[in-house]
Amino acid sequence: MATPQVERTSVTIRGLPANAPPLRIALISDIHVAGPDMPPERLEEIVAQVNALEPDIVAIAGDLVSEKRTATHIYTPQQIVAPLGKLRSRFGTFVVPGNHDHWFDMPGLARELGANGITLLANEAVVAGPLAIGGLDDAYTRRADLRGTLAAMEGLEGVRIILSHSPDPFPRVPRGVPLMLAGHTHCGQVAYPWGGAPATMSDYGNRYACGRVDENGKTLVVGAGLGTSLLPLRLFTRPTIWLIELRGK
What we know:
Strand order of the largest sheet: 1-12-2-3-4-5
Keywords: Hydrolase
Strand content: 15-25%
Domain Calcineurin-like phosphoesterase: 23-187
GO molecular function: hydrolase activity
Pfam families: Metallophos
CATH architecture: 4-Layer Sandwich
Number of domains: 1
Protein name: Phosphohydrolase
């Protein structure tokens, strides 16, 4: 598989100091640890690539594992999560559940995430540096509670952002939350060379399928993911790490 490409974008957000250095968020998603294409050894190399970007926050938008029938090896929760424990950032690593995580062993993954110092957010919120991060549980399996997550963010200090596995909750996110980060779509995984994809696993088709979307005063960034599901291949979609710089107005 190809080395992940680093996509960069800058988002200007009211509430951050205008004269401060930008806050750097590394977004990864859809790691799908499984043989043959994403063994833990390959994930360790990607973790080193993320650390070299020197992020302030690492956000993981779900689907740590793949239990696809074509897999040559299915790993344990400990083997899946251990490389992620080596991620380094100033304010921590935060992850939300994906549909494959629930289908595999969410309790086992949750135990290993906690043991490795990674914060799991499932319709919960936490302060990380100057941000208040709300983490949605998986919308694809109907576990997301946007209202409850927004309620959990009330009273927390910091600029509000949402981390979600699926991008589909984005239209319902209020304008008071200026940034949402997501994955799930793989940018199609198998895409057309001229853009777009025949399948995105999103109710909105290609509208929120890939990359940055600015809409109704809010910004959405959807990662292409790192691994694969169903089949261990990608076509016209490279694995991606997003580096998002937040700058104050």
